[in-house]
Design brief:
The structure holds two protein chains of two kinds. Chain A has 13 helices and no strands. Chain A is mainly α. Chain B has eight helices and no strands. Classes of the chains: A mainly alpha, B mainly alpha. Chain A binds chain B through residues 4, 7-8, 11, 14-15, 17-19, 26, 29-30, 33, 55-56, 59-60, 90, 92, 95-99, 103, 106-107, 109-110, 114, 117, 173-174, 177-178, 181, 184, 188, 192-197, 199-200, 252, 256, 259, and chain B through 1, 3-5, 7-9, 11-14, 16-18, 20-21, 23-25, 27-28, 46, 54, 57, 87, 90-91, 94, 96-97, 99, 101-102, 105, 109. Chain B: Fe cation 1 binds at residues 49, 79, 82, 167. Chain B: This is 5-demethoxyubiquinone hydroxylase, mitochondrial.
Chain lengths: 259, 206
Amino acid sequence: MSASSIRRLVSKNLLKFYGLSGHRSGLQVISRRCSTEKENEAVHSEDESEFFENEDDLKKSVLDKALAFVPTHGWSQKAISKGAEELGYPGVAHGMFTRGGVDLALHFCDACNQTLAARMKTDADAVLDAPAARKPVRSVIGDAVQSRLTMIHPYIEQWPQALGLLVMPQHAPESVALLQNLVDDIWFYAGDKSIDVDWYTKRLTLASVYVSTELYMTQDRSPGFADTWQFMESRIDNLSTAGEDFTRCSPMQSYTKYC
Amino acid sequence: MPMARQSMLLWMARPARQTCRTMSTTPAGVDVRRRAMLDRIIRVDHAGELAADRIYAGQMAVLGKTATGPVIKEMWEQEKKHLAKFESLLPQYRARPSALIPFWNIAGFALGAGTALLGKQAAMACTVAVEEIIGDHYNSQIRELLEDNPELHKELLETIREFRDDELGHLETGMQNEAEQAPFYKTLTEVIKIGCRGAVWVAERV
């Protein structure tokens, strides 16, 4: 067994040992520290249900719980602390997330993306069974953007703070990757099969629609975010018009036609 | 329990085994490395087949009405099938197409037409050089896929094997059609080979 796998095993269980096992005495804890890998495994099977398969799962559930505290504490270390306490870990467990609120915001975006992708997949599968119910691409995309933005509503008051964290240069690569995942999922499930530069323009323009609508939404006070949806519709309209004009006068069009 | 607290802090301060980055951007259950590999393979092969299609289009534009026309046309038809196959594989694997598609398009046509202008033999020398690189390139992809998981990539492996055999067939055709009698055969093919290797390197990434 290599050193790294031992470390993994130990780290898997340490939190449990030190933080939270109220029923274990300090002495037991100290003896646990010297425990060998074998013992670790025994302990692991002893109360398996309370352990997470790996560190990521643990982190994810802490962050999931932390989301409930965002309306009161913002996208902060404090919210993560509260989330960890909710799970029965000590508040200092926020130390697992070295970047504090950013980790929480990134996790939220990722979770929302995955929910949306799952939803769109179900819809796309349903259309496969009943092709008559196929919606036009434009409305598939509009609905997707709308339902993704709706997921932000519970945290709308704190969302400007999250946006501020996400656009910081050191976090930009990750938030851009999440945005790219989002628009790629939307186009994929909308049935996009583009194989050339269109692939890039479609994703870039949809990202611009998403981000501008998101910014608009943070300032929107209309009931039910009616203004936001109107804003989004007109952004998508602009795109379709621009797309048509571009295709009409594209020199590539004539080039590919004659070659 | 101060000792426990201290150990926990130590554990927290340990070097990150897995960064948050992979955690936050990867959907569960997707092997990141494998996905990146397939993405790269499909992208470069699509770009390559597109360029090959354009090379033959360029040759046909110049030599289409000569006696060599039918030979080139036959190879071109096969390349069109390859291209169509990879065009369907791109969305299937959700691979990103190369951003330089317009460039490969023009560069391929220019290479085909340019060598064809030097004569029939030079056009065939170009075919020989290009297909040799493509054959090698497909072989190394086959090795990579076999190494990863032959069962999982069965379909893709079959496709690539079939295409590799086609491409090496074109190499034979080129040789039979006096490729070696082209002016500056050695230099010409070497230059084209270097260009192709560079293009493969770029298309895998961009």
